[in-house]
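Lab meeting prep.
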Amino acid sequence: MSEHGRRIVFVSEGAGCSPTRYRALAYFPQLRAAGWRPSHVRVVGLWRRLALLQAVRRADVVVILRKLFSPPFCRLLKANGRRLIYDFDDALYVQDDGRPDPDRTRYFAAMMRHVDAVWAGNPTLAAEAAPFAPALVLPTSLETDKYAGPSTAAADAFDVVWIGSSATRKYLEAILPALAAAAREIPTLRLNIVADFDLPHAHALGVPTRATPWTQQHEAAALRNAHVGIAPLPDDPWTRGKCGLKILQCMAAGLPVVASPVAVQREMVTDALTGFLAATDDQWLHALRRLHDDPLLRTRMGTAGRTRVTAGYSVEATFEKMRAALATLTG
């Protein structure tokens, strides 16, 4: 059967949330070019769930993004839908501090049992889903052209950028002692925070900050306004489900990256080629010192990182995997 005219519906909590933007809407142009008719359905509350059941009946494929429905509603979805795919990019089966959560585990298992396939953001997530349904790793990917452009970093500062939100603020705060040690050796060091908050107490530690409110339109420019990107993470069951979006954004913007060696960050950052992996404060200090002292090294690593993202984590590259998966599922 031709792909022309097939309906694929993506289901999530909203069009503005990160998984919807990066794991659904970004692929709509490619899906249309391949003959699919993609759409998005927002599901929050009872009435929207009833509307979802109607949309499921009309669709050839339904992709559920991150939503963990109750076991009874999962059965309704399966009864009304032709082909269901579950897509997720976080360890939704545990709490966000890494502790076990029996209710999340139960809902996750129920969801997995009622879908035909799973698209997981990294191998750890795919392994959790694999006992229940065929699981494919579809990495969170970028429209890399959006991040291209010349550096606008200040010549009289050493700007280290972190991008995120209040939900991940604690990861940045945990690395402040290492940044303070680096600032004592690098007086021009400045922490750029692209998020919905600032860290005023960082100044007391000797780490000046520059806060830039995050917007979808200006995030790429904010990254190009720095010299180095950082991605600190603890190692726990929740963070092992992370898909490395911060790293990919920084690399796509041509920045070398210093990152904790946790989960996919070990794969995305090739140590001493696209950046440095740092597990201790001393390793963070060493990496930042080297990148400060060697502008040519920063340029080489930034170029290598952008090449890596374009080849392996671009929307174009990942769509080929998505298209093949849809062809296998729909026959």
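Slide two material, second protein:
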Amino acid sequence: MVSSALAATLSRRDVHYGWVVAGVTFLTMLVTAGAMGAPGVFMVPLQKEFGWNAADISSALAVRFALFGLMGPFAAAFMNHFGVRRVMVVALTVVISGLLLSIFMNQLWQLVMLWGVVVGLGTGLTAMVLGATVATRWFSARRGLVVGMLSASSATGQLVFLPALAALTEAHGWRFSLAFVCCALGLALVVVALLMRNRPADIGLEPYGAKEATPAPAARQSLSQMLLSPLKILREVSGSRAFWVLFATFFICGASTNGLIQTHFISLCGDYGIVPVAAAGVLATMGIFDFFGTIGSGWLSDRFDNRKLLFWYYGLRGLSLIYLPHSNFSMTGLSVFALFYGLDWIATVPPTVKLIADRFGPERANVVFGWVFAGHQLGAASAAFGGGWSRTVLYSYLPAYFTAGALCIGAALIIMTLARPGQAGASPRPAAA
């Protein structure tokens, strides 16, 4: 295999193959997230072509967000059972198929089925759980940094594609832009097939920075055990207050990022006379700031109290959302918003993953994070639908933005009620099955 030859070459140069795996994962999450963010550009063209209103389109996107999140814990189980590489190949194939078929859609139910169900299931297999799985399997040292890098790829991919997609849509229509997204996904599919491996042991390595031999993975479960294992783990951790604190704060995280900004920001700017290309440029600026902010968050999460980091992230995000309606939607005001909001777009992920691993153990971290991430996407689904409802019924997106800002302030306060690991009141790890 190409990966084995490359691993041997890198080993002679004292470079660990885990960095190649992280790079492949980075690319996959980047282009998949770009596919997730694309409908934000297509919302207005779809309204004009088919006569669907914002609430109609938002309902399909809400289905996608919900399935994207609910697939998380099962995606972790699939990766444990079938292998990360195989799951990534299937996921990319499903997403490409759903997007290509949607080029020919002309009915609302087709939008819900293709962009909601098919794309939701496919992207759910390569969600944040993929990054958490790769980081915990391939890295013993620098794990927080790797989680930050992979989280940044997901958030940045949702934003940096948007200016190009907006320009392509304006010049050639939304179908041409969708074909461009499919080409990017196809490139990622080829790279995954050639270079991705499931575990360091597959090529005779230990995780990067490991100081002792890594235990062999548990015996492979039957298919029924594999499908039930996420539910079993959910039952075990559902008695932990720490789990519900993290679930609730991540619900708010999703409502204030993917569901609101990613889905409705371009349409909101359109209400104030800002053309889609310019609004997408503001989102791309957020993506650039987010890239550095999330990687920095990974570095900080290895060194500081993760609860305090989340307090500042949620608090500053809430203040920036409350500020946005007062920015007068000038380019100066929007640039200030892009700076402060972008720096912590998804900087919440590395501290959240670290808190989960500390409380529930690294061997279950990806499944537990999958359930917490399900909360994130349920929040995103609520905000995607709620924002569209606000625009359709109240004729303004602003109530949704004020609500999201207030929720973020609440999340900042809630996370500080979580005890430090090892303190009295900290949640113990569930016993191994």
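Talking points for slide two:
The chain has a mean pLDDT of 82.
The first helix runs from residue 2 to 12.
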